[in-house]
Write a structure and sequence with these properties.
The protein is an alpha/beta fold. It contains ten helices and ten strands. The strands form three sheets. It has a six-stranded mixed beta sheet with strand order 5-2-6-1-10-7, with helices on both faces. A two-stranded parallel ribbon has the order 3-4. It has a two-stranded antiparallel sheet with strand order 8-9. β8 and β9 form a beta hairpin.
């Protein structure tokens, strides 16, 4: 089996589950193109922990970790099975990398996990292992987590980071809209795309200091950090592809990134 790509997905508002829009079409298209994965390991911006935590539940519950939304949204269930054996493998890989993981046998799927998974695999028949992020440890740590998980892709396990390429909820009060975009949005997402295309990992890890509008695009890190898990999981030499999934509310970009391991350059040989 060829190695699966890894993905970073902007999951948007919880209402994406009911009104999937362009991101729903993009994710459905991705699922149609990919081989059926053995399981999904998803690092979600809504499970925060001080150390890498791995969900090992046999039947992870659907967590409605939000409030103030329509009752219909709270009735949505995503009854995907867990994968304790894959969780054990994730634990082993992280432990071997010196990342001190912990297993949580009861952790369910928060909306950062089940919203995009529902759009990718609506039948909820792919086993899922959720993975926490560590907002106190920064991008380089999350990149190391992804690098540790890279062997999973060779086994048909799909590695996803779920967050949002821009995420400043204070801007709900700023009056932005489809016709009045936040001024930082395009420069920031353009910088991310440029650095990914250039393979400039060093700059990406230092995004907070180097990227234009970084503090406005991400007052806190947690929704961008899953990008580094997906990026790391693709290996050392990476080909990244930005998939435009639109902009919501004038300030929340819904970019998806696909990461493939770049082919190894071969030196030509002359046969005599």
């Amino acid at each position: 089996m060829n190695a699966l790509p890894s993905f970073y997905v902007s999951h948007g508002s919880p209402m994406t589950a009911l009104h999937p829009g362009l991101v729903g079409k993009r994710l459905a298209g991705i699922a149609a193109e990919l081989p059926r994965p053995k399981a999904v390991v998803i690092a979600t911006a809504h499970w925060l922990a001080h150390q890498p935590s791995v969900g090992g539940a046999t039947r992870p519950e659907t967590i409605h970790d939000f409030y103030g939304f329509p009752r219909e949204l709270f009735e949505v269930q995503y009854p995907a099975p867990g994968a304790p054996e894959v969780a054990a493998q994730v634990m082993q890989l992280l432990d071997h990398a010196g990342l001190a993981p912990r297993l949580d046998p009861t952790q369910g799927l928060d909306h950062g996990a089940w919203v995009p998974l529902r759009l990718l695999y609506p039948q909820a028949d792919i086993p899922v292992v959720p993975l926490s992020i560590q907002p106190n440890l920064g991008p380089a740590h999350q990149y190391a987590v992804g690098r540790a998980l890279a062997p999973l892709r060779e086994q048909g396990i799909l590695v996803i980071g779920s967050g949002s390429i821009t995420h400043n909820l204070h801007d709900f009060r700023a009056g932005y809209s489809e016709t009045n975009e936040a001024p930082y949005l395009r420069p920031f997402i353009g910088w991310i795309e440029q650095k990914i295309n250039a393979g400039d990992i060093e700059a990406l890890l230092d995004y907070r200091r180097q990227a234009p509008g970084a503090a406005r695009a991400h007052p806190t890190d947690e929704h961008l950090l899953p990008l580094y898990v997906a990026l790391g999981a693709a290996g050392e030499q990476v080909e990244g592809q930005r998939i435009d999934a639109g902009i919501e509310f004038g300030f929340m970009a819904m970019d998806i990134y696909r990461f493939d391991s770049a082919p190894v350059a071969r030196t030509a040989t002359t046969h005599r």
